[in-house]
Design a protein that fits this description.
Elements: H1 6-9, E1 24-26, E2 29-31, E3 43-49, H2 63-66, H3 74-92, E4 97-108, E5 117-128, E6 131-139, E7 144-156, H4 157-185
Antiparallel strand pairs: 1-2, 3-5, 4-7, 5-6, 6-7
Amino acid sequence: MPSFNGAALGRSAADGCAPAVRPRIVDGRRVFGPGELVRVGETRCVRYVTQPGDCVRLGGPGPEWTDKPPVVASYVLIRLCEQYCMAVLLETMPRGYCSVGSGQHLKHRGPIAIGAEIETTVRCAEAAGLRSRWEFTVRDPHSVVGEGWMTFAVVEKAGFEARHVTPKYAMLTRSAAGNASAAGNIGT
C-alpha cells in the first residue's frame, strides 16, 4: 500500500489534474469555508505500481480464489480509491475527526496485470458539510480498467465510537460470555 504525502497525491494541471483551491488555515488545518471540508472539483491523480500482494489469488482459500488468473483483485481497487479519497479529506479534517465510508460502487472494467502501473484519479463530485461524494477512474497503460463512486461522512471520532462501535463490542462481549456459560453447562 502506498504511503502519502502532498507530492504523491497532487499533480499539476499540466499532468491532467485540476489545481487545488487555496483554503484558509484554522487550527493548523486547511478549511475552505463554513462547514466545508472539501470543494466540489477537488481532484487528485495518483500513480501506483501493482504489487504481488494485490493478486486476486491471495483473496482467500479455495479454488474460487486460487484458480483465478494472476490479476489485481477488485477489492484492491476499492481499497486504493478509498485511501486516495480519505487522504484528501484528511488534509482539511479538524483534529479529533475521521472519515468513514458510507457507500461505494465499482465497475471493474478489465484485468490489471500484476506489476502494471495504474493511474487513479479521484474527484469530489458533491460536497455538503461533512458529507462528500467522489468519482474515480482507474487506468492501466492500455485502457480504463475501473470507475465508480464513493461516499464519505466526516465524524467526530470519539462520539462516533461511543454511539456506534462501543455498543457492538459490548454485545459481542455479552454474547461470548453467554456462549462460554452455555458451553460449561453442556453434559451436566
